[in-house]
């Protein structure tokens, strides 16, 4: 009975490191800040906030073109491991304008998580390239005809976005490594690097991430073998003592 108890206890001790209960993971806050623009202020306004604008309005709505990032939290949202979750939405506002337009911009996204009661932060930087096209060109910059499809209201503008730094991070909590991967921007249901936006329209892409975990250490097969030999040796010695 004692030997069986010891074997069971040893098995629990060895394999506990190989399994972990699902952690409570919460997305508590996501903020986006436009940290760099080219050109800078006063041509492009809003640097240091979540929304930038540029151009002299050439529309009766008196609207400038612009970019905005809206974080998906707060309110706090639960995150399931191995399942994509939304961090926020990038929006391009495309209005007919004159004057100097945006050429490029950098967006810093700070993601705050709570993993089993412990606060962790991931900071990611995204680089955007902007092509403000002449509305009267034919064909348009995308190769299509003016007045048709995405160019129905004049030539569409192109936004290109790429992950720069901070694409992923990891945290060790209670013996478990949690890996946070900022996947990138999704457009039309797929991971994308660019889109074209109609004049007088807004276009949006969703920033997504995924969290996975792995125990920090798992016993090697040799360790298991050594423990097994030790338990066998213990049993042999016990029988020899009884025989003596």
Automatic annotation (TrEMBL):
The protein, known as: THxN family PEP-CTERM protein
Annotated signal peptide: 1-22
Keyword Signal (UniProt): yes
Alphabetical UniProt keywords: Signal
Residue ranges of every copy of the Ice-binding protein C-terminal domain listed in the record: 217-239
């Amino acid at each position: 009975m004692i030997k069986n108890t010891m074997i069971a206890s040893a098995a629990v001790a060895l394999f506990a490191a190989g399994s972990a209960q699902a952690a409570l993971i919460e997305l508590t806050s996501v903020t986006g800040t436009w940290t760099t623009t080219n050109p800078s202020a006063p041509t492009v306004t809003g640097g240091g906030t979540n929304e930038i604008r540029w151009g002299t309005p050439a529309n009766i709505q008196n609207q400038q073109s612009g970019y905005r990032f809206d974080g998906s939290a707060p309110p706090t949202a639960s995150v399931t491991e191995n399942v994509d979750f939304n961090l926020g939405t990038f929006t391009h506002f495309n209005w007919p304008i004159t004057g100097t337009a945006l050429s490029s911009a950098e967006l810093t996204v700070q993601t705050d998580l709570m993993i089993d009661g412990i606060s962790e932060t991931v900071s990611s930087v995204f680089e955007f390239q902007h092509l403000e096209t002449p509305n009267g060109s034919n064909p348009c910059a995308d190769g299509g005809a003016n007045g048709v499809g995405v160019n129905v209201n004049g030539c569409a503008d192109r936004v290109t976005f790429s992950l720069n730094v901070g694409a992923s991070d990891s945290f060790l909590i209670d013996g478990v490594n949690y890996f946070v991967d900022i996947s990138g921007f999704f457009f039309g249901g797929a991971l994308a690097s660019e889109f074209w936006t109609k004049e007088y329209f807004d276009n949006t892409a969703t920033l997504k991430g995924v969290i996975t975990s792995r125990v920090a250490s798992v016993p090697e097969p040799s360790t298991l073998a050594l423990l097994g030999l030790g338990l066998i040796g213990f049993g042999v010695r016990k029988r020899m003592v009884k025989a003596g």
